[in-house]
Amino acid sequence: MCHYSDHGVAECDPCPPGSFIDFTGATYCKSCPVGHYRQKPGYDDCEPCQKGSAAEVEGSLQCPKCLVGEHQGQEGQATCDKCPAGYFQNKVGAEKCEACPAGTFSQQGSGYCVKCPAGSYTDKEGQGQCYLCPAGSFNDDEGSTGCDLCAAGSAAPKAGAAMCEVCGAGFYSEQGADECLECKPGHYNDQDGSGTCIACSAGSFAPGTGNTECVPCPAGQYSESDAADKCVDCQAGTVAEVEGSTKCAACSAGTFAYGEGNLKCKECSKGSFSGSDGMDHCNKCSAGSFSSEDGSSNCTLCPAGSLNWAGGSLSRNPCSLVPPGNWERVSKVSLPVGQSECSPCPAGHAQSLPAQDSCYICQPGQYSPTEGSTRCSQCPAGSFSNQAGKSFCTVCQGGWYQPYPKQKECKICQAGTAQGKEGATECNVCEPGSFSNKDGALDCIPCAEGSSQGNEGQTSCNVCKGGQYAGGEGNLKCGECAAGSFSQSGAGNCTLCSAGSYSTSTSSRSKCSLCEPGRFASGEGNTECLSCEAWVLC
After folding, report:
1. Number of H helices, E strands in the chain
2. Which of 186, 235, 447, 505 makes the best surface tag, with the fewest CB within 10 Å?
3. Domains of the chain, CATH where assigned
4. Rounded CA gap, 493 and 475, in Å?
């Protein structure tokens, strides 16, 4: 049987290599189609290329093996396929590609895998790229499968860190921090790499932020609790004679300290006295009494049968004999002539001594609620009186406070703090995730959606940057949008990139980038664009 014959030829010839006939009585041989071959002359059909090889032209005598970085898992194919990104093949004639192990990556058509550089990682096999360690974490080895959190006392401000930066003195950080924070007022640290700040002990203070030491309170001032950011002047009637005082000492009877911030008490001069501890002034001896020494705690009554009209007498024996006919009236209490009974001191006044011709008025910061008081009481902490002669103290209203007794006014809560109750002795520091932006606030305001605040005692919240988000209220920190999404400044959530656009873990993610010509991305949430096939326009 002839396989083919030209016109006029007496016998049939076999088809040459790379060709075949498809029916009996053919006058010519056809070239083997792509993906097929024939090495020898003959009468048979062309054979399909084996797996791991391909023939891209017609009339092939053999099928070349797939090159390194290529594979072909089917018979009779015209071309070999490149290994996809994340896979490799280091041999020729391969039927399939191998996945790159975790900690490595490869590009399309690779014959080998590349270790992820320090500061990046892949945590599973078959990856076409390495991912940067998030801010606050690091790795210092090539080929890493994960990242370690920065230790307390260090931070990594940017993604892709191979090592964490050590916080300097006056700063601190917790584990996994992306920034070192300044020590708050009233706190300090004096060493690099600290995970916390130390509260100043009572008797010292640290103003402002970022302190590396605490300062002793100067004489005349004190701080009674830890973590003070300032020292307080000693109140009238009290003193602090040395630096670093945790409290002020009350002046003893017979002495006084006028005004605030005193270092020493002064003795009452002759003719005056202070009858109790903690006095801010001395009282003049009243009619019928005298004091002849400095530092007197009381005045001496004129003896029976004598009197003193002026008061404030300085001499050792200033009393005069009562004129004839008046001895009975003055023999016991030395009352002025014509006065036969005592009157109670009105509310807002007091008198602690007998045989007096007047009551003393309660000073601002004091009160006496009833008639006949023997002393003026101090207004308790959380209240005040701003006038002399008061019978009651006024409680501090909401947004105000007073930590000390015997005060003339309340202090307003500063921005960053709040107090919603009356009669408060301190203001509440706004917690992280909230703020107050004015003095005298009743409540702290939670940070709005799209903003955050990681520190306490703040006057505002930080708006999340583009590529970040904070859902709901009261956020301590803005989250980072994942690759394949984006957000604008102040966003409460991230939006997936639309078809034809993408974002990566290394970009700002404040917007999605459009695919370049010749590349495409279908669906939403793309992290990369793929190359178009050679015969497709996109």
Report:
1. 1, 56
2. 505
3. 1-82 (2.10.50)
4. 13
